[in-house]
Amino acid sequence: MEDDYQRIDQSIIHDSFSHDYEQYNYDGCQCWHCSDAKCHQSRRVYDDARRLLRILNKNCSELQNPVIECNDSCLCSIYCWNRVVQLGSSAKLECFKTQSKGLGVRTTDKLIAGQFVCEYLGQVVSVHEAKSRFSQSDLTKPNYLLVLREHITNFSNPHILITCIDATKFGNIARFINHSCSPNLLAIAVRINTNVPHLAFFAKRDIAPNEELTFDYAGGYRDNYKQETSHGIKCLCQSETCFGYLPYDQMLFDESK
């Protein structure tokens, strides 16, 4: 059902989530006009039209370091090139009934490659809470629990950071975006004021009006496809590169804490 959840305009931090994680704040830059040469906030990630450069440069892997935007502590204005996700999206999206996948999301206007489309909103929960919720869910029904994995490689201690966002009860239109093994959206972790990531969707290519929007539920991890098991649900994306089954994060099936 399209209306079986509460609509929100920003994600909700659940009590199970680490408050230390939430309270970490990024220092602001001291620039009036950010530039590659002077701004220490981040390397250039958007062009002057606020399009994601890694897409324009044909580097569409989701297994990359997150984007860090300018924040409330920065001296630069809202017109800074490094403020995109925080300003919201101008994309006009709508839910519609697909032929075989239930509800889906499509754009009513043309989207340009690299354009910010929308953010996946929900409750940000701990890994333990995510496992608990998933274990009690009906696998034959739509799953709105998304596991975001980030490869943090630009520090002395490279590691994988996991964030779980559950849009089952609280969310936005992004919860209805279907999976495709050959998607037209790229999911990117974006940080603004705190260490809690925003999961932002960007257009991987130009997208025509009325075209369905899709992203890779596996987040770039091919091991996340559970094939020919009791958990396997057939994929209906009809892509030439279809893996056959919808991906699930293996972590959710692990009963350990």
Descriptive report:
With 257 residues, the protein is mainly beta. It has a single domain, classed as SET domain (Beta-clip-like), CATH 2.170.270.10. The chain is 7% helix and 23% strand. It has three helices and 14 strands. The protein has helices spanning 19-23, 53-56, 127-135, and strands spanning 6-7, 12-13, 67-68, 93-97, 103-107, 116-120, 123-125, 145-152, 159-166, 170-171, 178-179, 185-191, 198-203, 214-215. A four-stranded mixed beta sheet has the order 2-7-9-8, with helices on one face. The model has no long low-confidence stretch (mean pLDDT 85).
Give a concise summary.
With 257 residues, the protein is mainly beta. 7% of the residues lie in helices and 23% in strands. The chain has a single domain (6-26, 88-253), classed as SET domain (Beta-clip-like), CATH 2.170.270.10.
What is the subunit organization of this protein?
A: single chain
- Number of E strands: 14
Number of helices: 3
The CATH topology, please? Beta-clip-like
How are the strands of the biggest sheet laid out side by side? 2-7-9-8
Describe the main β-sheet briefly.
Answer: 4 strands, mixed
Q: In terms of topology, how is this protein built?
A:
Elements: E1 6-7, E2 12-13, H1 19-23, H2 53-56, E3 67-68, E4 93-97, E5 103-107, E6 116-120, E7 123-125, H3 127-135, E8 145-152, E9 159-166, E10 170-171, E11 178-179, E12 185-191, E13 198-203, E14 214-215
Parallel strand pairs: 1-10, 2-7, 3-12, 11-14
Antiparallel strand pairs: 4-5, 6-13, 7-9, 8-9, 12-13
